[in-house]
Amino acid sequence: MAKKKNLFERFSNWATNATGSSAAFIIATAIIIIWGVTGPVFQYSNTWQLIINTGTTIVTFLMVFLIQKSQNKDSKAVHLKLNELIASHQGTSNRMVNIEDLTEKELDQLHKFYVQLSKLAGQEEDLTCTHSIDAAHENNTNKQKSFKQRTSYKK
C-alpha cells in the first residue's frame, strides 16, 4: 500500500511539517525582529519596506498551494476513513458513501432528513435505537403498503 511518493509529494509533506513547527514560527518572528531593528540603519527606506513586503508575498503565495495540497490530502483520507466506517457497519446506509460529490441542494435535502431523524430519535424511549436512510425508506414503504391495503379494503 505504501507506494513511493513523487518528489512534489515528499517536498509538500516535508514543507507542511516544517512550516507548521515551532521552529518555523521562531525563525519567522526572528526575521521580523531583525527587519524591524534594521529600519533605522536603512532609514526606513522604500527598499527596506519592499524587502519584507516582497518576501512575505512570495512566502504567502507559495504557502497557499502547500496548504491546499495538504488539506486536499487530509480531506480525502478522512472521507475514505468515513466511507470505510459506513461500509463496514451493519446499521448504516451505503448511500452515504461519497456524498461529498452531491450538489449543495442535495446536501441540504439530506441535512433536512437528518434533522428530522434527530427529532424522531429524541422521541424514542430506547437511547440505543438507530435510524438510517434505508431504515427510514423501509418504514416509508411499509407505511405506503399499509395505506394501500386499508384504502383497497374500503372500496
Overall description:
The chain has two domains: 1-88; 102-155, no CATH class. With 155 residues, it is mainly alpha-helical. The radius of gyration is 28 Å and the shape is elongated. Helix 1 crosses helix 3. Helix content is 74%, strand content 0%. The model has no long low-confidence stretch (mean pLDDT 85). The protein has five helices and no strands. It has helices at 7-19, 22-37, 46-88, 104-123, 133-154.
Short recap of the structure:
The chain is mainly α and 155 residues long. The protein folds into two domains: 1-88; 102-155, no CATH class.
Record keyword descriptors for this entry.
74% helix, 155 residues, 5 helices, single chain, 2 domains, mainly alpha
Gap between N and C termini, in Å? Answer: 64 Å
pLDDT averaged over residues: 85
Number of strands: 0
Structural class: mainly alpha
Q: Give the fraction of residues assigned to helices.
A: over 70%
- Radius of gyration, in Å, reads 28 Å
Shape, per Cα inertia axes: elongated
SSE topology:
Blueprint: H1 7-19, H2 22-37, H3 46-88, H4 104-123, H5 133-154
